[in-house]
Each structure stands twice: as structure tokens, then as C-alpha cells.
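I'll show a typical protein example:
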Amino acid sequence: MPFETPPEGVEEGSVVFCWEDVQFDLPAEELLKAWLLAVAAAENAPVLELTYIFTSDEYLRQVNVQYLQHDDYTDVITFPYTPGAAHGDVFISIERVRDNAQQYGVPFEHELCRVMVHGLLHLAGYTDETEDEQATMRQKEDEYLRQNPLIASSV
């Protein structure tokens, strides 16, 4: 569904990064924004407002409990606001990303970009409930990671 104009108060095409209770240097913010906008365009998901909130494990667990009734640690939780659009909040646990990067033997930036694009793919309408959906999501993640100039050489 094409959008003529974004909802009132939302700048079309905005990607915002926020830190809740963690501090770390996000590499090449403008390059990441451009990459995320390109992914959204490739998925035909118009970007209205895409907000990434970087948190600790405990903060994200509390979000998981409060809003999804899951008492688990996770690396990413996505809250969509407009179906078919990149309009929502993507919460990411930096501690989980660091642990996953170590477990999978990849650089932190690689795993961070994977969970960032994972959240965006959820906003674009992908789910990962079944094994087939998980395989599709992983294939899409890998495809877009190869296009990310920050990490393409390590994929």
C-alpha cells in the first residue's frame, strides 16, 4: 500500500538510533541509515519512522515481560505501527549481540547489522514462526548483509 504522505509529525524516511541504558559507539551511523533505507526500498516497505533502541539484556527482558508476556532474554524485539511499512520500534540488546557474535565467531558489527535488518524484515511483514519462515528470514538477512558496505567483506 503506497503512502502519499507520512502520518502527521513523522518525517518521511527517518531512521533514528536511541540508547536506553547502554553506551557504545555505533559505527558509521549515516552509512547504516542509508543501508537500512535501501533494504526497506528493496522490500517495498516505505519508511515512515524506523527507530532502533539499544538496550541491556535486563531492559529488553523487561520489555519482553511487560508487552509480550515472555520472561526470556532475547536479542531483538520489534513493535510495528503501520502494516506494510517500515514504521516501528526495534529494541536490540547489545549484550545479546555481543554474546551471539562471540558464539557465532563473527565481528560485533556483523551481528549488530544482522539483528538490525532482522527487525526491519519483521516490519516489512516477514515472520519467523516456522522453520521455513526462519530459513527465508536467514536468507534475506544474508542477502542484505552482503550489500552492507560496513561488513560485506566479512560475509
